Amino acid sequence: MRAILAGGGTGGHVIPAIAIAQELKKLCNAQVIFVGTARGMENRLVPAAGFPLRLIQIGPLNKVTFKTRLQTFSDLPKSMLDCRRILSEFRPDIVIGVGGYASGPMMMAAVLSRIPTLVFEPNYVPGFANRLVARWVSGAAVHFEETGRYFRRCKVTGVPVRQAFFDIPQKPKDGPPVLLVFGGSQGAHAINEVVRHSVAALRARIPNIQVIHQTGERDFNDAEVAYSGLGHWVEMHRFIDNMPSFFARADLVLCRSGASTVAEIAAAGKPAVFVPFPRAADDHQKRNAEALDRAGAAVMLEESKLGPESFVETVSSLLADQSRLKKMAAAAKKLSHPNAARDIADMAMRLAGVSSGSRELSS
């Protein structure tokens, strides 16, 4: 079996795509290539995972300046020709679009070439590229049941998440309450500013609290100065590589609500306060957070309403209510999908006409 995974840009697109590719390789010895752009994280992550990467030149169309949109439209004919050339050379049995700039042209080229197509959509509201091709694709793998209304044929599979998040042990009850704060690998400046100005007040409300704060590189020095006289109950990190181990220590997580983060919260069964990134495309982070808020698995606190008082009140009231935290954790766990990568790979194989039991070596 031969498969193309198209798209990327952010880790939220690329990391699940790699998990799907690895599952395809394990299930049927699939030969897989990725198609992305020069600006995305796929340039670092895909080769590191051992997969070939082909690049096309295409930019954004959604919520950009007229100049940027004009440039993208001028790049579109060549990007479509490049996609057709890749399809002709590689001869895939299936093309899987994971969202991002490269996904749209490659999926459209596959549709026009009558090659089976599968969309992977991790957000509550599909991204622009996936919405463009929604009516023509052969199938869609989604995270939220409500997302299915955008596609003719879909299945709720969830988002592939590392097994370590599912294997997190239950936190001992006799330890101090622990708040884990992070905003992605680069940090979240708005969250960082509020937290560093509010942790002393939070400690006054909960005297034995422990705070773990991943700031990112940009805000680390300012946080270090702010926390210098507070003692060891505030733990700072520029980056956290082994996030499951920090989830294991936390009673409550405060973070953004990108698709991968939401899936990791569900897999770990951790109560969360989501602060959606307000400038995310199509406001998808807010929609993700609202979905878990409605399910009783999280609390959404919009950035426009995030301040020292709301931060302290929200966090302290949650940590003081162990019964509510337990219910939130159980609700989050119900939304997890431990077999997401396998289910998406199975969908791709069925669309490509390959049985799960086959062990073909593609040449």
Short note summarizing the structure:
By secondary structure, the protein is an alpha/beta fold. It has helices spanning 11-28, 42-48, 66-90, 103-112, 128-133, 163-166, 189-196, 199-205, 220-227, 243-249, 259-268, 284-294, 308-319, 322-334, 340-352; strands at residues 2-6, 31-36, 53-55, 94-97, 117-121, 139-142, 154-156, 178-181, 210-214, 234-237, 252-255, 272-274, 298-300.
Q: What would you give as the CATH superfamily of the largest domain?
A: Glycogen Phosphorylase B
Structural class: alpha/beta
Shape: elongated
Fold-level CATH name of the largest domain: Rossmann fold
Write the H/E string, N to C.
EHEHEHEHEHEEHEHHEHEHEHEHEHHH
| The number of domains | 2
Overall pLDDT metric: 90
What would your notes on this structure say?
This protein has about 375 residues and is an alpha/beta fold. The chain has two domains: about 1-160 and about 340-350, Glycogen Phosphorylase B (Rossmann fold), CATH 3.40.50; about 165-335, Glycogen Phosphorylase B (Rossmann fold, 3-Layer(aba) Sandwich). The protein contains 15 helices and 13 strands. It has helices at about 10-30, 40-50, 65-90, 105-110, 130-135, 165, 190-195, 200-205, 220-225, 245-250, 260-270, 285-295, 310-320, 320-335, 340-350, and strands at about 1-5, 30-35, 55, 95, 115-120, 140, 155, 180, 210-215, 235, 250-255, 270-275, 300. The strands form two sheets. Strands 3-2-1-4-5-6-7 form a seven-stranded parallel β-sheet, sandwiched between helices. It has a six-stranded parallel β-sheet with strand order 10-9-8-11-12-13, sandwiched between helices. Strand 11, helix 11 and strand 12 (about 270-275) form a beta-alpha-beta unit. It is elongated, with a radius of gyration of 21 Å. The termini are close together. Mean pLDDT is about 90; it is low at about 360-363.
